[in-house]
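Our preliminary data section would be incomplete without showing what the modeling component actually yields. Below, a chain of 767 amino acids is followed by its predicted structure, encoded as tokens that our downstream tools consume directly.
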Amino acid sequence: MAYISVTKPHQWKPRLFITRASNPPSFNFIQSFSSVDESISAGDQTSTPIPEAPASASPSKLESLTAAEAEAEAEGKANARTLRGKHRNADKLEDIICRMMTNRAWTTRLQNSIRSLVPQFDHSLVWNVLHGSRNSDHALQFFRWVERAGLIRHNRDTHLKIIEILGRASKLNHARCILLDMPKKGVQWDEDLFVVLIDSYGKAGIVQESVKIFQKMKELGVERTIKSYDTLFKVILRRGRYMMAKRYFNAMLNEGIMPTRHTYNLMIWGFFLSLKVETASRFFEEMKERGISPDVVTYNTIINGYYRVKKMEEAEKFFMEMKGRNIEPTVISYTTMIKGYLSVGHVDDGLRLFEEMKSFRIKPNAVTYSTLLPGLCDGGKMFEAQNVVKEMVEKYIAPKDNSIFLRLITCQCQVGRLDAAADVLKAMIRLSIPTEAGHYGVLIENFCKSGVYDKAVKLLDKLIEKEIILRPQSSLEMESSAYNQIIEYLCNSGQTSKAETFFRQLMKKGVQDPIAFNNLIRGHSKEGAPESAFEILKIMGRRQVPREADSYRLVIESFLKKGEPADAKTALDSMIENGHIPDSSVFRTVMESLFEDGRIQTASRVMLNMVEKGVKENMDLVAKILEALLLRGHVEEALGRIDLLMNNGCEPDFDGLLSVLCAKGKTIAAVKLLHFGLERDHGISISSYEKVLDALLAAGKTLNAYSILCKIVQKGGTTDWSSCKDLIRSLNEEGNTKQADTLSRMIKGEEKAHGSKKGKKQASVVS
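Predicted structure:
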């Protein structure tokens, strides 16, 4: 009979199905080095038929029909027209129940929905629902509910299925309770149920409980066969309990249970796993003495064991013995030998076996390639490695470990075979293996080192376009030595925008490389995009990345070349705030640009920062700025700057400033500046005083002139000003007779004090 369904049939709905083996597949011995599974015993391969429930348990409409009527009805339903907008529901009943349990919480409402969906439960439906459950909790809830609700009484198969599910989910206490409660429900134990639980405890690493369950089988009267012992051996040997395994092996023999080939394979595997080579050899000899012929699994186990202890001579001896016994080596045999040779540095021997297995039409698998390629890299045989990669692509076989590709790319680059390294990346794409930023990084770095920048840029374009850097599953990040080289090249070749796009992807992964930042700033500045460069500086500030003074200087120069001195001043302020002190040339270029742009007050603020930072150069430009401030009427600001200059040991040219102000008719500014100089006892020449007085007199500001003359006298200066009489006359004409009389007496008193010394003039005011 042909079987086409993987689920059990419902009793009330005829269905073709596949029978299930009574021995759970999870307890066949899984060899880490062999693809050949050997049955525990011949009896284990028999299938257990699915029990049928009595006909009275599930009455249905189908039972009342004859076979012909049932067939006609089924054909009529199949040919029935589907209404527009409606789709036939081909889902099986168990699939619907599993989906309901997955999408909804386990509540009374869900239970009622399932009850209304299923007119009659049977064991095959329950088994299929348990098998299809995506969650062990759902399976356990369903298992308990159908029994407590009286919908069904579980049989041996449903118990075995739930114990398997709970064992895989490590819910071992639940599985144990269900197993031990089976007789209370009228269900008898058998060996398979206990084997499942023993193996589940072993996989969970709880060897003691596995042993207790095995011992309890005898107490409960459950017969223990070689199947139970094999499962126990696998559990305890996996944990290195080789002495315990020997004791139970002897106990098994005392009970009259004879070991099978599978049993010896297990024991040999376990002793090699514990590095007990001599004990494993004795069991191999005992196996042959008992007339049990070793098979390919036995030899694979021994070869793998000797490889683990680096005894390749012994491994080779057994490999040859296997051939001598006409036991055909498998791909596992060759792969193990190749791995062993490569582990001791015999790369040529490994290659020889690789070619030999292909000559015998034994196809290498993914494990073979994953074993061979690292050894070829270690041995420096990169040409052979390239050929192996090509062979993998032709056969579309991807290795188990994807890390080998990074190693291949790196090794090919180390020997200067850059095109071969690029072919490895292409092979990954053809094999549908996800490429990562680390793979591209190695290639880009080595292409840059070799000066092949065009290929490096092409790889970078793919990296940016596919956003490979941003893939969340990526584990290989690009090294700084790779991205810094390509960023520097792009910035130096006028492609800074592309470099920034690339680096912004790196920043999203947490990269904060100062070298890359500064390269971007340099590139944007050279390309005349100071705004972008300054934005990079701001990003560095927000991320607390150290910023170099040279980067600020480049941004400032770029702003100035673009004719934006105000933005240059903003960048200069940011530079100072960040703790950098610009040199005198930076201050000068910014001040000159602002001055030429007519931004005198802004230039004055730059001058203020310069003086405060102790830079005493550029005094010629300082004088121009002060002059412009005074001429524009920003007298108080100019006087403040002059005061700062004097406090920092920089003497401004008062005489020059006064001369310009008088020539431009800025008498008020000249008076304030003169008063400022007099209050601080600054040396001002007589000619400067006279220029100011003449300008005031010409402008009709006689009282201002009188005030200045009085201050000159109070400071001990002379009043032999040629226009004194004109000032007195003007004061009298304006009605300021009191000031005129005072000035006359001051002049007469000075003339009397000097006597005959009329020809001499005091040229300076007492400082």
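The CA atoms of residues 377 and 411 lie 6 Å apart. Confidence is low (pLDDT under 50) at residues 1-88, 753-767. Preliminary results of this kind motivate Aim 1 of the renewal.
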